Amino acid sequence: MYEIRTGRIPLKIWAFDIDEQTLEQARNIAELPFAFHHGAVMSDAHVGFGMPIGGVMAADGAVVPNAVGVDIGCGVAAERTSLEGLSSKELKSIQKSIASTIPLGFSHWKTPQKWDGFRDAPDVPVVIRELDSARYQLGTLGGGNHFIEVQKGDDGFIWIMVHSGSRNFGFTIAGEYAKKAKQAAKKQHLELPDYQLSPLMLGTKEADEYLAAMNFALRFAHASRQRMLKQVREIIGKYRKGMTCSGQVSIHHNYAAQETHFSKQVIIHRKGATSARKGERGIIPGSQGTCSYITEGLGNPESFMSCSHGAGRVLGRKEAVRTLNLKHEKTLLDKKGIYHSIRSQKDLDEAPGAYKDIDKVMEAQKDLVRPLITLSPLLVVKG
Question: Domains (ranges, CATH) in the chain?
């Protein structure tokens, strides 16, 4: 970790190869009038919308929709199965079954899904307006960097991992309140380095609505991951009768929460970062084809008890598709025996070459988190 002191508050940076655009976004955090104590940049940091992905900010009296991100509640859940191995034939069949059972990409269910949580939806206009659509999105994977993997752990067991978010439901909430925040900031003539970082001040109707909607989207995203885990469990169970699962770890990495840091109650924003309190179990996934980690937080106060949420991109999606070599990326995965999702040029946006080296990312944050179990991918399903 190193420190930069060029803004209103200092920046503490764990990233080993931060680019200038990401650094500029981080500097903007340090200039915000409501940002508290210091800004933190995780080891997987890359350019985001307003605030860098991999950024952590403590806000005094404010919540910033674009410091949470557009995929509210995006996160990862993983669980250990009782299996010690699966054959190539089983893996191929399981991958095909997952892809044909769970809606991927822009696909939704054809019938509304039941969830008790829908009865507890907050009385917020955007939530009420989007609730019917959300019933068709629950338990669907989405696209981008979302994935379902079956992995082999160095603990000797097969693991299941799901990475997904709140789908268009959370995206719509994020967009509506980022717009409201920007309008309010300009109306109040707030001096900000970037109006994409406009706040909603705590105690206002807009802040109360956003926090209620955001927390509901967190629950929705968590319930979605649980549904997909259950479906993958059932699919594998068809091939291996009597399989059981245990030791589930579940985290989210696009959210804001009221916490106490440096003796002050603040709103912590973790955008592409996860909580890493002392002893807290977490998940840091790699890119497609590289290892993921079950971790234990070290509770470092300098990162606001946070760590990275993954490997982090080194190439933008369009740049990856334009510059990476399809044959090379496929060969790398094929040689590892992974049933992967790289089929054509357009899939290169999620190729391993588009991401940072996960081992370097882990090395850069060894004072934030400790690896417990290393998971190697056996099959990957993406939207």
Answer: 2-314+355-382 (3.90.1860.10), 315-354 (no CATH)
pLDDT at position 289 over 90: no
Answer for the pair 72, 218: CB distance below 8 angstroms, yes or no.
yes
Across the range 45-54, mean pLDDT stands at 95
Q: Which residues are catalytic?
A: 309
Cα dihedral sign for 340, 354, 161, 159?
positive
First-last CA distance in the chain = 35
pLDDT at 196: 96
Rounded to 10 degrees, the C-alpha dihedral 139/140/143/147 comes to: 50
DSSP string across 115-180: -GGGGG--S-HHHHHHHHHHHHHTT---STT-EEEEEEETTSSEEEEEEE--HHHHHHHHHHHHHH
pTM: 0.96
CA separation for the pair 36, 343 (Å, rounded): 46
Q: Which of 273, 195, 233, 265 is nearest to 80 (CA)?
A: 233
Handedness of CA 58, 62, 65, 71 (dihedral sign): positive
Query: Measured between alpha carbons, how far is residue 123 from residues 128, 169, 210 in Å?
Result: 7, 15, 11
Q: What residues contact residue 288 under an 8 Å CB cut-off, 6+ apart? A: 147, 333, 340, 341, 342, 350, 351, 352, 377, 380, 382
Closest listed residue to residue 272, CA positions, set 76, 17, 28: 76
| Alpha carbon distance 138, 119 (integer Å) | 14
Q: Worst-scoring range by mean pLDDT, 65-74, 227-236, 336-345?
A: 336-345
- 135/113 Cα distance (integer angstroms): 5
Give the residue-averaged pLDDT of 160-169: 97
